[in-house]
Amino acid sequence: MATELFAPHRLDALHHLRSDKVRELTDHVARLAREGTAVNIGRVAFTTSLNLISRTIFSIDLTSLDDMSSSMEFQEVITAIMEGLGTPNLSDFFPVLAPADLQGMRRRLARLFARLHAVFDAEVDQRLHGRDAGQPRKNDFLDVLLDVAAREDGKDLLDRETLHRT
């Protein structure tokens, strides 16, 4: 995957995307400054990062700088996942207790990851339907992943179940 996804030529090809996202961010902050509106730096930075990642993977923006409610949900889910992964769990100290999930950490994280997977699955389904309908390739990371999954030697490497476990 490293040779397919993170090759220097692929990353160099995305330079314009990074520049566009920074320009969008500075334009948004400048507009808010002209209006005299406060800027939630954490929210706009998160939204810009999320859109950069989603544009790189799916060729779409998942959120908008002007609609902070949509990015708020993503930020809450990501924050909750990070907190859950960083919280000490009894099974970290007593592995024999892991199957019991006494603190409910595994169930909570599974629900959070399921919310992310629902968004990602919808994007994958949409791309697959587009391919079936003859829509042109976008040559983003999702196209590369789908191409690898479609190869005969890729079927065992990359399928939805594998992606959901990682």
From TrEMBL:
Pfam families: p450. InterPro entries: Cyt_P450, Cyt_P450_sf. GO terms for molecular function: heme binding; iron ion binding; monooxygenase activity; oxidoreductase activity, acting on paired donors, with incorporation or reduction of molecular oxygen. Belongs to the cytochrome P450 family. PANTHER family: CYTOCHROME P450 FAMILY PROTEIN, EXPRESSED, CYTOCHROME P450, FAMILY 76, SUBFAMILY C, POLYPEPTIDE 5-RELATED. This is Cytochrome P450.
